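Pilot study result, target chain (72 residues):
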Amino acid sequence: ARPEIEAKIAKMAEKEASERAKFDEARETGKPVLLRQWSSDCHDPKEECSLDINYEYAMPDGSVKHDWHHTW
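Predicted structure:
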């Protein structure tokens, strides 16, 4: 069980370091940096789309911005 736990801890640390580097890049460049991208069911029942592409950005001020685009 110990190797599994250590592997999970290492993976979490790697993810945090990667995210921290993206926030540093956003702060240095003054531009948003993509953190994650994924697809999900359309969030707007009024749109005739079946899939949204979601984006999460690290912003220069340290916040996270979520944006999405409908697919048709």
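One observation from the pilot: The CA atoms of residues 41 and 57 lie 20 Å apart. A full batch analysis is planned for the follow-on phase.
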